[in-house]
């Protein structure tokens, strides 16, 4: 004998103690009730009327009209049915009817709070009817007028609350109807299943309508944002294009300044040493400015141009090239009449380029949107020599023809406005009564030299 006890000792547990099944079920039930209480106690946008985001003022008033249309007939009907048909006391009938119908007006702005009041009143009303003789062979626990008011409330609730809240309301309604069967009066017609099914259908329909409206609203918002982004991108592209063209114009003048300043000591004899140093400084500054400008504006070059053609070296066009542009447009099937000044007009490079591009964009719009339309192009300096008028007018096509493009990004008009704004001019565009279109730009001209300017020059440099 060893003296050990014959009864085996329990071995220590090495793993977690497993919770009994009834405790797990109890904990899950408490968690479900907690979630249910949170969903039923957290309204969405309280105080905001239904359909408040709709643009039409008539649709914004519609929830108030519907709530009033349900409340006014349901209140006296409920009082009458409860007191006469079910035999309930008159005062209690009036109190229950008021609590079951008047909160429908509150449902326009706070549907979840209205549901708490109406649901509690319906449950209290069902308990009050259990001891009445009039409940025999009648609907219970939800009389017909209570079902109608409750369904109207479900519509308002589904248009505001999220799906989890709607599910909680539906389940609470079903549980209340199921528990009511414990107190079912003898001989009554149970309506809890009908109420449960109709409530689910109404909530699902309302939630579907709300989600569809939200999707359409988000789609409209996205289209608006996309349109704004597209307009902004078009504007940036046109500005980049203008910057590239102006780079070529300015680069030409800067190159001329550099060459003239660097070659001045060799072209002009007898220049003092200080003047040579000044010319050298001017040439160095011009070279640095040209290199810096090319670095800053080089990012505006398209990748395709950099990869294939390198920097643009083609001279920029002006009004002298308008006849060639018009000739190409005529070959495209658009009859164009061109009127240019009889005498050459001295234009700044930016103005000359802007005038050409405005005519180019206008004729391109005619080809795209009104093929075959007779068009007149005129470039006319004002009598006082202060402005240059660029006018492009097209009438409606003589023969009906489908436009090459029915919609556009507005790239041409944006480009015209940017070019005109760049040179401090003005632009007027718009349709004509006969179905045509008009583009009129006023561009500034450099001041003409005159006696006054010569006199001021002499005064500024006295001998």
From TrEMBL:
Enzyme Commission number(s) from the entry: 2.7.13.3
Domain of life: Bacteria
UniProt-listed Gene3D superfamilies: 1.20.5.1930, Histidine kinase-like ATPase, C-terminal domain
Residue ranges annotated for the Histidine kinase/HSP90-like ATPase domain, each copy included: 354-446
Keyword Nucleus: no
Residue ranges of domain Signal transduction histidine kinase subgroup 3 dimerisation and phosphoacceptor in the record: 238-303
GO molecular-function terms, A-Z: ATP binding; phosphorelay sensor kinase activity; protein dimerization activity
Transmembrane domains' residue ranges: 62-84, 142-159, 166-184, 190-209
Annotated catalysed reactions: ATP + protein L-histidine = ADP + protein N-phospho-L-histidine
Keywords annotated in UniProt: ATP-binding, Kinase, Membrane, Nucleotide-binding, Phosphoprotein, Transferase, Transmembrane, Transmembrane helix, Two-component regulatory system
Record-level GO cellular component terms: membrane
Enzyme class: transferase
Region feature Disordered, mapped onto this chain: 1-22, 442-463
Name by which UniProt lists this protein: histidine kinase
Organism, as annotated: Streptomyces lydicus
